[in-house]
Amino acid sequence: MDETLIIHDATPHDAPVIARIDADSWNAGFGDLMPVRPLNFDRVECWRLDLDAPLPHRWWVAELGGIVVGFAGIGPSRAPIDPELGELDTIAIDPAHWRQGVGRTLMAVAVEQLKADGYRAAILWTLEHYPQGQRFYEALGWRRDGGTRRKGRQIRYRRSFAD
């Protein structure tokens, strides 16, 4: 089996596997921090709509040996709304493939595209009490910027592209 990691554009056809990875990584990663995320028809359909969003929204999947093992998406910042600020919407890896470089590779693709799209910086949101995610983001150059939402349960990270 070919074990080369391949990143390519995601399409609405990828919605079922993305919904599964989203649910599996959410449930394994967040544990008691968040309610269990079910995998059902409605979730697949929501992903199908997200994956079909027009530019500047972009989505990628990571394939290893022909199997989708992760995905990431970007777009303009939603909170705050700022035309010069991009957002890492989601990055999720199948838990069986955590700590194998899939997330780092997807993040590199996402950051390069955010820069190419002309954003001066980008943000992402994560849970306040989620050290695994926070260590991952910080290792890749993201820094907490003091922003919070959902009564402080979510914290914002930022990465400048001015350098």
Question: What strand order characterises the main sheet?
Answer: 1-2-3-4-5-7-6
List low-pLDDT spans. none
Number of domains: 1
- Structural class given helices, strands, pairing? alpha+beta
Estimate the helix proportion, in percent: 25-40%
- Helix segment count? 4
Q: What is the residue-averaged pLDDT?
A: 95
Describe it:
By secondary structure, the chain is α+β, with helices and mostly antiparallel strands. It has one domain: Gcn5-related N-acetyltransferase (GNAT) (Aminopeptidase, 3-Layer(aba) Sandwich), CATH 3.40.630.30. Helix content is 31%, strand content 32%. It has four helices and seven strands; from the N terminus they run E-H-H-E-E-E-H-E-H-E-E. The protein has helices at residues 15-30, 41-51, 102-116, 131-139; strands at residues 5-9, 58-64, 67-76, 85-93, 121-127, 143-149, 154-160. It has a seven-stranded mixed β-sheet. Helix 1 (15-30) packs across helix 2.
Keywords:
31% helix, seven-stranded mixed beta sheet, 163 residues, alpha+beta, 32% strand, Aminopeptidase
Topology of helices and strands:
Elements: E1 5-9, H1 15-30, H2 41-51, E2 58-64, E3 67-76, E4 85-93, H3 102-116, E5 121-127, H4 131-139, E6 143-149, E7 154-160
Helix pairs in contact: 1-2
